[in-house]
Each structure stands twice: as structure tokens, then as C-alpha cells.
Write a structure and sequence with these properties.
The chain has about 290 residues and is of the alpha+beta class. About 25% of the residues lie in helices and about 20% in strands. It has 2 domains: about 1-30, no CATH class; about 30-285, no CATH class. The model is unreliable at about 1-30 and about 35-40 (pLDDT under 50).
Amino acid sequence: MTRIEERLEEIIVSHKGDTSALVITEGMERAPDGTAQSPSFDPHLLDSRVTSMLTSIDAPSYVIAATVPPGNRVREFHSASPTAVRHLLRNAGELRHAGFDLGIDELAQRGPDGSLETVQGQRKRLRLFQDGTLIFYALADDSFLGWARSPESFMAQPRLAPVPVVEVHASFVNVYSSILGRLQFAPTDVMFELVLRNVELENGQRLYLTEHHPGDNWEWIDRRRYPVEVEPPRATVTTTADDVRGDPYAVAYRLVEAFVSLFDMPPELIPFVSGADGVRRIDVSAIGRK
């Protein structure tokens, strides 16, 4: 018999066999107010929500998701107050004008499974659940991650552009750092999940990355290609909530590093990075200069 099973037996005995109102908190962490919280994540629930987000999408697409351990909730989730979370989602993660961020400039509406959601056709979608799970989806084609290309040129050479690839991760962590501040309980850890879908086009070409240089026009065509190599193309990054809130662009760098690892591209080739103090971060001020 395990320690938890022994403890459960003791509790049942102390309740004279009545377990109808019993809540087991053995082995669980506690929030500052003493409320028990599970120390582990629920990857199955997150996977099902990611899958739901991608339902009926046949084009190349990308999802970034973040979640905290169960037992939490976003405050003012259903409120219409100007300070409520639905207003935060409207211009979510805007780092510069007309950038590759999460914002859709529409007030969030009710989405599936009680979520709040903003939608821009099939191009991008942002969905927040009351338990603190945030999921962002965008097309990985010429309309977003492969920006500045015609559909025909993207089909021939499906390269994902460095600017949106880096900026969208910085934008996502920026938004999630704000979400964490709206949770009822302060979580210890955060789990991010990155998922690429439909990475092989109809013509057999696979999505790929190349090294970036400032002022690139078409010079990248002759550079080495790093096609998607990992199957299935997904990665998980776990970090502390304190890091997400206190150093979001260092966490964003870790996400970009995990993303390029799906292509076997060396992390040294990630653009828009600073690291003067020994910690590598996305330099958002450099993104606008391209």
C-alpha cells in the first residue's frame, strides 16, 4: 500500500466511511491562501483543445498553447467591465503597429467549451479558457508565418519568414504574462506546447526555415534550407510562472529555440536575439527594423 493509499484509508476511517464530501488533497501543492492545487498539468485536456482548434483546417498551420496546473481560474472572465480579460484579448500582444501578433481588434466573444475567442477568418484565432489555458492558432502559409509571398511562390518554396516566426512567440508570451496576473491563485509552473500541422504541401514540398539577414529580399533563396524534420512536429517547454511574468522575452527565446529545433536549425541562427547579461532574449526593438 502506498503512502497516499494509507492516508486515504485513514481519512475514510476518520469520516466513518462517509466519502460523499471528501476532497483528497494529499500530494497537492497549496496556493498562498491554502487552497490545494495539483502540481501536475493535464496534457490530455490541452491536446484535445489544440485538436479542436485545428478541426477542418487543411492548410499548413501552427498552434502555440500555454496552460497552468488544474484548479485555477481567470478572474473577471465573464465580466463586461473595461478591465475584464476580454478587453485584453482585443489587441493581444501588440509589440508594434501591424506586427505579427495575436491581436485581431475585435472584442472577444463566447467560444467553444465556455471559452472567450477572437477570430480573423482562417488566418488566426485566439482562445482563452477560464482555467487559464490560452491557445493561439495561425496559418503557416503566405498569409501569416510565410508572409510577404504570393500563394504561388509559397507553394514552390514554402519558407517560413523569420520576422513572424520570432515575433509571434514574443507576442504570445507577452499576452500570457498578463493572463497569469489575472489568475485566482499564483501558479508555480507554466507549460507551453507548440504544434505544426500539414507541414507537407500537395506538391511534396515541406515547410522550411533559412538563416535571416537584415534587408533580405530574395537572397534567402540560395541559402541552406532546414525543412521540418521532427514527426510529429511538436514540442513542449515548461518553465516557472515567475520567469514568464518577470522575463517574458527570455521565455519567448526558449519557445523560438524549441520551434527551430523541429527543423534541426541551429539556435545560433535565430535572429533578433540579445544576450548581454548571458541570458538570451528576443529583442523586440530589433524586430521592427527587420
